[in-house]
# Entry
Amino acid sequence: MGTSAAGTLSLDDTELGRLSDGFTSITFGSTAGTGAIAVDFATPPTLTDAITIRSQSTSGGGAITVSDAFNTGTNALTISTYGAVSVTGITSGTLAITGNGITLNGDITTTGTQTYTGAITLGNTITLASNNNAVLFSGSSSSINGAKGLTINAGSGAITFEGLIGNSSILSSLSLTTTHATGISIGANITTTGAQTYNGAVSLTATPITLTTTNSDVSFGSTLNGSAAGRALTIAAGTGAVTFTGAVGGTNALGATAITAATTTNNSTWVGNSTLGITGNAVMNGAISGITTLSLSGTSNIAANITSSSNQTYTGR
# Structure
C-alpha cells in the first residue's frame, strides 16, 4: 500500500487517494492470506473511512509493516495478523492491533479505545493518547518491553495491563494518567530503570505484584487498592523514593507489602490485612490499620496512629 511500497500487488498513493472517502469501511488483505503487507506512502493520505488491514490469524499469517504515520481521522483502524506488526505512528478513532509481536515506533492518538493483543516492543519513546477512552493490553501474552519510555494519557478512560512490563527488556520509564474510577489496573509485574508514575487510582488485579525501578521513584497520585482483599505488593525502588498520595486499601485491604526505598511516604490512610515491611526511612502522615506486623528499618517520622494485631519493630531512629 502506497507509492513507496514494494510487492506483487500494490496500490500507489493516487489509487489509495481515490479510496479515501465514501465507503462504510475498507479492508486490505484476507483472513486466509499469508503474504506480507507493507504500507509505505510517498505522501501519507488521510483515509476518512474505517480501515482494516489483515492477514491470516493463525500460523502462517504475514507480517504487516506500516512505515509511515497512518491517519484515518476519527474512523476506526484494525490491524490483525498472526505475523508481526510494526507501526510508525497512528491517528484514528477506535484502534485494535493484534499480532505475534507488535512494534510501536511512533506516538498513537485516538478518539476511541485502544486495544493491543500481542507482545509489545517499544521502538522509540512512545506516547499513547486516547482522549477519554480505555487503553487495554489484552491477555497475559501482551507484555511490553523495550529500553524506552512509555507515557499513556487516557483522560477519563481506564488503563489496563494484563501482561508483564519490562520483563525481558527493561523500560526506561512509565507514566500513566487517568481520572477513571477504576483507573489503572495492574495484572503483572512492572520493571523500569527510571521512574514509575501513576496519576490515577490503581488496582492490583493479580497477586503478588512487584514494581521495580533502578534507584528511581515510584509515585501514586491517587488511591491504591486490590481488585480483591489480600493482594500482595512488593516495591523495590533502591535509592529512589516511594510516595502514596491517596488512601491505600480503602476499598480492599492490601495483603503482604514490602517496600525498599530511600524514603517511603504515606500521606493518607492505609488498611492492610497482612504484614507491612519498609526498608529505608518512613514518613507516616496517615493512619495505618488492619496489618498484622510492622517492620521499619530506617528513620521513622510518624504523625498518625499505627494499629497492628502483632509486633511493631523499629530498628532505625
Q: What stands out?
A: Residues 165 and 190 are 5 Å apart (CA to CA). Residues 1-5 have pLDDT under 50 and may be disordered. The chain has one domain: 13-254. The longest strand covers residues 257-266.
